[in-house]
Amino acid sequence: TPPPTAVVPPLPTPIVLEQTTPLLGPNIGYSGQLTSNDAAVYQLQLPAASDLMLVIRPQDGLDAVMQVSDAQALLVGQVDEYGVNEPEFLRLTTTEAANYTVRVSGFDGSLGNYTINLYDLDSTTTTFLLNITDSVAAGDVNSYTIDQVANQFVIVFFDPTDFDGLVEIYEPSGFLLSKDEGHTGEPETAVFIPQSDGEHLIRVFGYLGDSGSYALRVIALP
To answer: What is the DSSP code (8-state) at residue 111?
Structure first.
């Protein structure tokens, strides 16, 4: 008999948010707990011209699902790419001010604690391990190092402007921890958990020796 197929909870029908609904904002976060199948709900108010990353870090056996809907209750984003106790993240960009509703639930009925944060990728108040703009020449590889401790989740954001770029992350031992690749001009996101303390290597290069400019930002989750 095949195992049952787990189903991601559907987007709930529109609700009227109470004044007590927690308000998420740039660099404002919360700790929460799912004790039932009911989703936790947050308000999200984004200013114009925003480039933000919504991150949830589950604990205690929670496999988190995060859904974001707009003021008309239309789903604009949903993430459940990783497993139990692994972070989920969703990038949000706006051209004008907008209000959203964020719902946090457990995949397949999982429960547990979590923290949820909104990081402003363009803000000087966000603490980056690395935050640079650079370019790579045809056939070259750009290398960067970050001094990181073991067992801390790290997220790498790579935004190429005009070429098909690739990102690789290596342990101090030379072991390839993570890599991400997309298409021309597409942002890349890589998540890794250092297995040991020390300097970790990030390599950036173009697919088939392509060249171009990019932004590279690295955040360690608290």
So the answer is: -
